[in-house]
Write a structure and sequence with these properties.
The complex is a heterodimer of chains A (275) and B (248).
Chain A (H helix, E strand, L loop, with lengths): L27 H27 L30 H29 L11 H12 L14 H25 L5 H6 L3 H28 L4 H4 L11 H4 L16 H8 L11
Helix pairs in contact in A: 1-2, 4-6
Chain B lengths: L1 H32 L10 H18 L33 H4 L3 E6 L5 E4 H6 L3 E8 L5 E10 H8 L7 E6 L5 E5 H4 L5 E6 L2 E2 L9 E3 L12 E7 L19
Parallel strand pairs in B: 1-10
Antiparallel strand pairs in B: 1-2, 3-4, 4-7, 5-6, 5-10, 7-8, 7-9
Classes of the chains: A mainly alpha (275), B alpha+beta (248).
Chain lengths: 275, 248
């Protein structure tokens, strides 16, 4: 029987290793919604571009549209999905529900579980972003420590749900321009709502491409963490001082020559982060 | 012993990493292979399910009080309005061959009618300046003059069981069937005039159905017959894979 009031604490065995953090880096809901999003966004963008190609312009018939430089130039076929207009419409109108439900699940989770705290903008974020830019531009030698996500990541992950919401609202506006005529009018009418829907898609694509680029270029070790949830802080960009494609270089080659030079001149201490 | 454990778990994680990389590669390949295809065949049933659910939702969302509004400052399309038909040439009603044109209104109705163009023109007339919403994504502003569909319905007195209407044409076998509520919408007309002039063969003469609540392909041109029906009857483009409802 275990003594309910032990006089001494049980001694850890000498060989015991510190426990790995029991908390996963990403909750399973985040991981599942992330990958559902990958499929849903690829299909929504691809089928949307296929629909767009049926009339790759924004002008009302008999008018000229001011603000799109590629009027009547179709998107390359290989970027589209659905095969033909009708097929792409079926995909678009089916997958839109997956995207919306998935987004709601994610946002509800982030709100209830407190993860939003890692994502909302804060006062120091502009300064922190500047530090990240300086680091990537070799103007700062060590990777700033800015919590779970650095300021640039935070800005991206914060902006994406808003871009998604914008895409959904403008999408509803062009789905039902007569039934929801006053709503469509909020976006400047059908022609403009269709344009804003396109812009929302562009924002999502640009942010997603930047995200995927940075994952492969800076933190490929985070890919397993979005599947199993496990993340080894030893491999974090902060620990590796990782700039884009740093992990692909042989160990003994250092592209951050300025840092090396400094190190040779006598170990740089933590007094100043700036070079 | 602990070091053994550590070693084996490290190996495990390496295997898992390998597995993850391979599966990522496979998924990417599958996605690439699906590019510019119609997507996996196995998804067809899911897509049809989604279309049925969307149809039910869209019919619920439909309001007779929702009106199409042309934006202020929008220009008329005029001769920029595209002309579509499925026959190899512009379908023209040839009186010498087919006799005088008349519109048959029948099906599940108490008083079937046969209306010549003059008969139609004697019925209450409206002119609607509205948007044309094409399935392709373009819009065009035009003024359509004709008989409100609801007036025709009043004339023939449809059975309450007639929940659908089929609009048939002499443009080959072109037809499209509608839900009755869209047909009864205030802006749905059997049009014989466009922009203040008689409808021309390029746009469906002598008469066509026109409503901003439906996509262009649902608005049958070159009308010959309006049939009230108890169930939906597909349509030319509907049978070729476009969604049956086609409402906006």
């Amino acid at each position: 029987m275990v003594d309910p009031n032990p006089q001494t604490l049980p001694q850890p065995t000498p060989a015991a290793r510190p426990l790995q953090s029991p908390r996963k880096r990403h909750h399973w809901i985040v991981r599942v919604t992330h990958w559902v999003n990958v499929v849903a966004i690829i299909i929504m963008v691809g089928s949307g571009l296929r629909i767009f190609n049926a009339y790759p312009a924004f002008a009302r018939k008999g008018e000229i549209f001011c603000c799109y430089p590629f009027e009547h130039k179709p998107i390359p076929d290989w970027l589209t999905f659905g095969g033909w207009l009708g097929g792409a419409r079926h995909w678009h109108f089916a997958m839109m529900w997956v995207l919306v439900v998935n987004g709601l699940v994610y946002m509800t989770f982030v709100y209830l579980h407190g993860e939003w705290r890692d994502l909302v903008p804060r006062k120091g974020d502009i300064r922190d972003s500047w530090q990240m830019i300086k680091f990537y531009a070799f103007r700062r030698k060590d990777h700033p420590h800015q919590g779970k996500h650095n300021a640039l990541q935070k800005a991206t992950y914060f902006a994406l749900p808003w871009a998604g919401l914008f895409a959904v609202l403008t999408g509803i506006a062009i789905w039902k321009p007569v039934q929801f005529a006053p709503f469509t009018a909020l976006f400047g009418g059908y022609v403009w709502a269709r344009y804003w829907h396109f812009i929302a898609m562009l924002i999502i694509v640009v942010l997603s491409v930047a995200h995927v680029f940075m994952v492969f270029a800076v933190d490929p070790y985070s890919i397993p963490s979005m599947i199993t949830g496990n993340y080894d802080p030893k491999h974090s960009p902060e620990a590796r001082n990782a700039r884009p494609f740093y992990h692909l270089l042989p160990r003994n080659v250092s592209i951050d020559f300025r840092v090396r030079r400094e190190r040779k001149q006598g170990r740089a201490s933590g007094q100043s982060h700036d070079i | 012993m602990t070091s053994d454990l550590g070693e084996s778990s490290r190996l495990d994680s390496l295997d898992r990493r390998e597995f993850i990389w391979r599966s990522t590669g496979l998924i990417s390949l599958a996605l690439l292979a699906a590019c510019d295809s119609r997507g996996p065949k196995s998804a067809d049933r899911l897509l049809q399910y989604a279309e049925r659910k969307n149809l039910a939702l869209e019919r619920k969302l439909f309001r007779h009080t929702s009106m199409d509004v042309v934006q202020s400052g929008a220009y008329d399309a005029g001769n920029k309005l595209p002309s579509y038909f499925v026959s190899p040439v512009v379908p023209v009603w040839d009186e010498a061959v087919r006799g005088k044109w008349a519109l048959e209104v029948g099906g599940l109705v108490a008083k079937p009618a046969r209306l010549t163009l003059e008969d139609l023109q004697r019925l209450p007339q409206v002119s609607n300046r509205v948007n044309h919403y094409c399935v392709e994504g373009w819009t065009a502003v035009e003024t359509w003059t004709g008989v409100p569909f609801a007036e025709l319905a009043r004339l023939v007195q449809p059975d309450p069981k007639a929940r659908y209407v089929d609009f048939r044409s002499f443009d080959d076998d072109y037809h499209e069937s509608w839900d009755i509520e869209s047909a009864m919408h205030k802006q749905t007309v059997v049009a014989y005039g466009l922009d203040g002039k008689p409808l021309q063969p390029a746009h469906g003469a002598p008469a066509r159905v026109y409503s901003p609540v439906k996509l262009g392909y649902k608005n049958t041109k070159y009308l010959t017959k309006i049939v009230f029906m108890p169930r939906m009857n597909g349509g030319y483009w509907t049978d070729r894979g476009y969604e049956w409802y086609g409402g906006v």
